[in-house]
Description:
The structure is a single chain. By secondary structure, this protein is of the alpha+beta class. It has two domains: 2-130, no CATH class; 169-305, no CATH class. Helices cover 54% and strands 16% of the residues. The chain has helices at 27-31, 44-48, 58-64, 109-117, 137-151, 167-210, 212-220, 225-262, 270-296, 300-305, and strands at residues 2-12, 15-24, 36-39, 53-56, 75-78, 81-89, 104-108, 126-127. Strand 1 (2-12) and strand 2 form a beta hairpin. Helix 8 (225-262) packs antiparallel against helix 9. The chain starts with a strand and ends with a helix.
Amino acid sequence: APINRTGGQVVYGDQNWFTQVQGSTAAYLQVRAWPIAEGEAFGREEDVTAAKVCLLGQTVVNKLFVPGAPVLGEQIRVKHVPCKVVGVLSVKGQSFGGADQDDVILMPWSTVVRRLIGSQSDAVGQMMISARSAAAVSDAEREITALLRQRHRLADQAEPDFQIRNLAEMQDAAKQSTETIATLLEAVAAISLIVGGIGIANVMLVSVTERTREIGIRMAVGGRGRDILFQFLTEAVVLAGVGGAIGLTLGIGVSKWMAAKGNWPTLLSPPVMLGTMLAAGLAGVVAGFYPALRASRLDPIEALRFE
């Protein structure tokens, strides 16, 4: 399916929106596996006659029409060209790069080239091709490369003046990038947890030193070592839990802020949040165990004499 793109202001009534306008053939929807939610697609006849018809992405519909208002058959203006809405595309979502794929208007290729771009050339900016199966992608890529080199009259050793992008390879690259970023974030979280644990351990050691006489008094009136151990472990866990709750709250707030600013879908997972709090509590136990053990082993007489 050939593709030519342009950007343009779209107007309907007193509403307007700047969006991307794509010109292609009816095969475009099949290649992209993009069904129509309402109406019907344009065909070869509309492309040959450069008909003033269009398909709207869901984002454009939301920007131009009030909810529940009729869309099919309405006249909108794309740049300076009046256009009849013959269909609404189903929701596609975001692309790999985070772009809104539903913020688009699809028109016949000849309509975009002749009426919007104002060109009489048959040059195609981009072509989108679908192989019969995943196993046939490599063979199709080789055949397309050979055909384009022949059509562009390129010598055998000449650099190609075109670029072929394999969506399967792009998906793999995106997956690897995501996994790399996830690993880095996990490493940062682990380092932060270790640093926080060291901080808690230092605070608890200072607390044990400053409260030596208090520990001695409690042991003198019958407090057992396990009671002292439990007390300081509890304080360490509470300290870690408060820090974890503050960090979790900030993380949720920043995630929602970034989602609102960048229009990125954000999923907050309750199991992950619960795991975060459990990890904070475990860090408190590990970090506070030695100071608590040290406090529980103090000699009551020496502790009472401590200045």
